[in-house]
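Listing S7. Sequence submitted for prediction.
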Amino acid sequence: MLKNYFVIAWRNLKRNKLFSIINIAGLSIGIAASLLLFIIVSYEMSYEKFQKNYNNIYHLVTQINFSDGVSYNPGIAYPALPALRAEMPDIQFGAIDCMYGSQVMVPNGTAENSNKFIENTGIFFCEPEFFKVFDSYHWIAGNEAVLNEPNSVVLSRSQAKKYFSNWQNALGKTLVIDNGITAKVNGILEDVPKNTDLPLTVLVSFKTLKSNGSNYGFTTDWGNVSSNHQIYALLPPQVKAEDLNKRLIKFSEEHYVYRNSKKFNFLQPLSDLHSDTRFDLFGQPGVSKTTLWTLSLIGMVIIIMACINFINLSTAQAVNRSREVGIRKVLGGNRGSLFKQMMGETAFIVSIAVAISIAAVHISLPYVKHIASIEEELSIFTPKYLFILFALAVIVTLLAGLYPAFVLSGFNPITALRNRMSTAKSGSISLRRGLVIAQFAISQVLIIATIVAISQMDFISKADLGFNKDAVLVLYSNTDSLSLARQSAFKQQLLALPGVQSVSFNSDMPSSVNGMSSNFAFNNQPDENYQLYEKFGDENYLNTYGMQLVAGRNYTPSDTVKEVLINEQLAKRLNPKKPENVIGKTIRYGGGNWHMIVGVVKDFKTTSLREGVRPLAISSSKPLYSNIAVKLHTSNLQAAQNSIEHVWNQNYPEYAYNAQFFEDSINAFYRQEQQLSLLYKIFAGLAIFISCLGLYGLVSFMAVQKTKEVGIRKVLGAGVGHIVFIFSREFTLLIIAAFVIAAPVAWYVSNNWLQSFAYRIHIGIWIFLLAILASVIIAWITVGYKAIRAAIANPVKSLRSE
């Protein structure tokens, strides 16, 4: 019996090639697209799940309450760690500290000949207790005890291979970190999985951090909270997270010194580490759960659209199989057996579609990194994804097959044998119309969301940021005494290069992820009740980055903080009536010395456009200059870069050359939005294509069913335009009805997404008009081909064939 079902299914496929191709194509695209999205979402949700104690590990984070809002920090004050262990001995704590962009040198004679590596993801200062919290890492050589020793370093297998060709050669060798720490390799870790936000590749003992604290910001000040220093806790089974959170509030109240803010620590589950966008973990933003749910929803609606196609075409085509069903019933076939046969045919078609979708996904997976932040090589041929595929195939078979099988098996045998079945009797016309409306409503939601995303990204790319980001090359330097002593000579050599306009030494670019801030006071008054954000640069800072003064003057050259510039935002808050009157007044950072305000800088965007302008001060402080900004002429950028690298190697032979264009660092802010915009484009296109497949199939069927009607109309004088109008009128009305449903949904979804930006576009009426116009034009093109062919057919042949 089962074999018979498949034989009949195959014959029907060959007999109705057009509908078979449309059905299989629609299902293949739908299954492949949804499976690809599910793989992406599944991978993003798998972060840290390889940890054995995944459900009991928590990250201690900091919330800072100001009078004007709340700030979140993934770090915690350095002295908190010993205090937590003393007051909460029942909890296992482990700390880790990250330093971004550190240099690791493998000694090989002189500094010039040594191999130098810039670790952009950072090196980690780690204590052995960290591995009591995270005990799922595998040690190839050594164990966590080696991190009790000062100047001891542990490498991952791949990192050891990178430095020493293989891990066996690495043991016992020395590394020089940031030209200040000479550490011995005492342990090797197996490579950590890619789906982790803790990329442990270079681990230096925590005692080494303490002994070099001045170079890495280590402090015992409770008021200093660094995002680099992070603490994790392993809760025993008898301790609940909510109970520990209460203890942490009391702990925070007892230890933190409150000036213009109130700090307290709370627990973040390890499961939220990758998706909680309030925190940038070691400078890397995660993927929000909202984004993951959005992608999952898109995957579901794509597969639903493919199923809608199948239902519409199968029920419309059912009239052609009425005689077959009638004969089967007369010969003893019951409704149950017919129902099984139809479901078997559906399963057969779905199986073909699944095979095609597997091939499509396998080919597409290497390109996933362009639409998602996944560098790992993924494969569909894993038990997990094959199970998802099997479940998807079952769900699609049920969704696509149940209603057509119910309709076909329910035909009256007498009516069917007399061939008096019509499309009206082969399933509810209102249901088919409703399904077409649903398809185009989904397509229009995606079209509108795509237009909004593209418009917002275009707005971001053209927004006035308050500075000039073009052709500014940023060199990442060091702040040790040797580097600082060479700055002046290096600057003069750079300025002598033909491609260089200006040079500035500074602590930070105008716009970056750096959120250095402190309490502050104004004009000999007590501390203000909000934070002051700080940037430091030499007297060429404004000129190099193209920032403008709106009042006062620039500060004079100095190696230490003497005079201060503030932005318009801060000036307005300090003196709302006359902001320019703040010039000549004094300001101090964090309880230090008082300094004169000499100028007001036009507001510029200090972070991404997701956030508003922060109150900011700019001043000079040579010990903090870790960046070198070089403004270039745009005529020959590559030649200028080569010259700069040559001068760098002459002046800093012990440091690797590490540079990036300022514009690239700004674009990195919006990597996820750009990827999401690309995803919208791809899947909006697929949704439209699937809708058009179904529409084409229905019009093709309609053209066959209306052959006699068209012939009679033409004989009675109807023109081609009138015939085409008859075919397209109903579908145009359905698309308009779909738009009425889609417009408010699309506005709600798009507006919610835009709320994450402090600076955003207005969702204008033109976006909706463009979406409906695009939908109608696409539908007309789809319908037009078949409609015109039907309209220009010879009416005599049409009437004879009927």
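Caption to Listing S7: primary sequence and predicted structure tokens for the chain studied. The chain has a mean pLDDT of 83. Residues 671-705 form the longest helix (35 residues).
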